[in-house]
Amino acid sequence: MKETGNISIHTENIFPIIKKFLYSDHEIFLRELVSNAVDASQKIKRLSSIGEFNGELGELKVKVSFDKDKKTITISDNGIGMTAEEIKKYINQIAFSGATEFVEKYKDQGDDKGIIGHFGLGFYSAFMVAKEVEIISKSYQEGSEAASWKCDGSTEYTIGSAKKKTRGTDIILHIAEDSEEFLEEFKLKSILEKYGKFLPIEIEFGDKVINNPNPIWTKSPSDLTDEDYLKFYEELYPFQEKPLFWIHLNVDYPFNLTGILYFPKVKNEMQLQREKISLYSRQVFITDEVKDIVPEFLMLLHGVIDSPDIPLNVSRSFLQADSNVKKINSYITKKVADKLAELFKSDRPAFEEKFANIGLFIKYGMISDEKFLEKAKDFCLVQDTNNKYFTLDEYSEEVQAAQTDKDGNKVYLYTTDVEQQDAFIQSAQNKGYSVIKLDTLIDSHFINTMESKLEKTQWKRVDADAVDKLIDTGITLEAILSDAQKESVKKVFEETLNDKQKVVAVEAMSPDELPAIVTQNEFMRRMSDMSKTGGGGMGMFGAMPNTYNITINANHPLISKLADLKDESEQKALAKQISDLALLSQNLLTGADLTAFIKRTVGGF
Ligand code: ADP
Ligand code: MG
Hints:
five-stranded mixed sheet; ATP-dependent protein folding chaperone; alpha+beta; nine-stranded mixed sheet
């Protein structure tokens, strides 16, 4: 039998177009051909299981090999095979998907989940790298004759009989000059591992099987142990620290999606994201660009998502508008929130232990996703300077009595640096206030969000003001100094300070406090922080030098002494020493100022 015919498309020659424009990534040809071979194997398995094929199934396997001298790459399977008629039908009509037909035909007999099909131009992507493609195939049907098909990339093909004795298909690519890079073992192996690592049929390259045909995401969570999840994580990310916990995704309505998301150990948001979530479609790797599908705040998670319902060969803007993609996105958000809520409820100590790591995800989610915030505000924790954790509700209770100001606002005090702000923390604690630690980069955004979400709360860094003024309870201490004395003390200080320092007030504070303290106005500091972390339009604040407000403690014995001194230069020397001491207590005294301070202090002995 020998016959010549025309591939039925209307353009004179579609192959140059395929070659240039179909996929920017030529390596995709291997994904397509191996997927077809896997499909052919899955089909014969199906036919056998429903009794339509009664012959020997054998060990189903896909083999990929290459011959550097002959410049060929061969993909072989012992799947369903094709008769000459089928080749004409399935191969010669471009964009006619036999996968779709097969699924349609057998859809009432069990599930169709095994068939990949339908990526696009599928088989024809071979012409991205081959100047000639041969098919040699023998159908599973009893008594069928083996067929051979050959096409050189024009619209003309030849079809005839072949000598093949065993069931299945060989696809032989005669690699074009400009694609000889694919005739390298390392190259082929890495492409196979990239796309085929979890294909459901064994893929043999050289004499090694390159894939794990039964990845755990395809199994039921009830059949899996923690050990299985950890082992799979290691398989995905060989050199990573153990994950904290994981979520097994499993839905089939209104879209089909399975997968496992791992929460990795990330301590700070600067940590580079090298390991990503991979997107699969029926166990074929598609991409690790999962933006749009995975909510942005979960992009730092690890793991896999497998969904045949995500459109694959479409543009980004289409993906964003796709209703399945939107549903998948909110499903993942909900699953993650539910999992966290469950962990919190079932084992709070363990949850607290992990909070240093997962707090980042939770806070990021609360800032960026209204729905997530609704759920997460029940399990988001804050930690005080004694390392005790509170939920937001618990914390509100905790500070109710001592930290409500005269207008009924709860004032939450926080520190961004326990060491540097120690003097302020101690003063606050002595007054019976609680201080929480909000010391990661995301916290400044978190504070802004929470202030607008939690009614009648105000968040203030513990050094935003003198301790007596942090929470305005309407009660003021008596000052020992007269108003006139205060005025003159203020003047002495003003004459000694430099242009970055400013005396705000001489205030009645507790005599136990320092004689002077340096504070940073909450609003100005936040603006300057935001400009530092890249908040747009904050240039003005970013360009401003940091200025410090100095508040003088009118009730401190040293200040009384200063007020009583007769000699003006002695007064100034003491004032300078007191303000430098205040700066020093917060690590704000540096360089020549610090050296001078030390010299003066030592000289005093
Ligand atoms: P799709 O996989 O989306 O159906 P392809 O262009 O990749 O489209 O393949 C077209 C059809 O050719 C397949 O549906 C299948 O019927 C047939 N085919 C391709 N490769 C093989 C193979 N190795 N064994 C059997 N049939 C195959
Ligand atoms: Mg295909």
